[in-house]
Design goal:
Porin, 2 domains, 8-stranded antiparallel beta barrel, 55% strand, elongated
Length: 213
């Protein structure tokens, strides 16, 4: 005959049942506590991260060096970046179309750029401001019907500005920004006045979404 295992007493069964119930109740509470301690998306990350985004862009041309008929324009911006903590380095492509006074034609500004960004610990709740710089290469093209052939001017773009990220969800933020920019066409740079005359100043306003998985 196989030996019989002693059955737990009523008190033992009560204690065992109580411990099991407490363990089952503690498991979801532990998971909820862990979730509460997850870093918020607007807090600095100690590990590297990747972000991608897209913006609608308004470009206001202040000093017209290529053609006095060029006015303000609208377009888009797509970009990606990598970073850690408060610092990130991004790159993107921007394209805007600008009215030409007295015509129904448009001039097109397009080019690639590199943009470093620094997040500032000045926000509260779900938003955080930032400052950014920019350097890139821009092409300005006008329609052949106005120039006899396709006129394209190339220049180096410099910019500086800032903005605000407003987090809508854990991985999605509304990105609002403003940027002063200058296109240097590098022509006849014999004096300071030549540098000013052969450049074009402008202001960019942008609004879009930034995704940070």
């Amino acid at each position: 005959m196989s030996p019989r295992h002693p059955r737990p007493s009523i008190g033992g069964r009560f204690v065992l049942g109580t411990l099991t119930t407490l363990a089952l109740l503690a498991a979801p509470a532990h998971r909820a506590a862990a979730q509460r301690h997850l870093p918020e998306p607007w807090q600095r990350r100690s590990t590297p991260f990747v972000a991608v985004g897209g913006d609608a862009v308004f470009s206001s041309v202040r000093a017209r060096a290529t053609d006095p008929r060029i006015g303000d324009g609208y377009g888009f911006d797509v970009h990606g970046s990598v970073g850690v903590s408060a610092l990130s380095l991004g790159g993107g492509y921007q394209r805007t179309e600008h009215d030409l006074t007295g015509t129904t034609q448009h001039a097109t500004y397009s080019g690639f750029y590199v943009e470093p960004r620094v997040m500032l610990d000045l926000g509260a709740g779900n938003f955080m401001p930032y400052i950014a710089g920019r350097v890139g290469r821009t092409s300005v093209s006008e329609p052949p019907s106005l120039t006899g052939n396709t006129a394209v001017t190339h220049g180096t773009t410099y910019g500086a500005g800032g903005g605000l990220q407003v987090w809508l969800a854990r991985s999605v933020a509304l990105d609002l920004g403003a940027l002063w920019s200058r296109i240097d066409y590098s022509q006849h740079r014999l004096s300071a006045s030549d540098i000013l005359r052969n450049g074009e100043d402008g202001v960019l306003l942008k609004a879009g979404l930034r995704l940070t998985p």
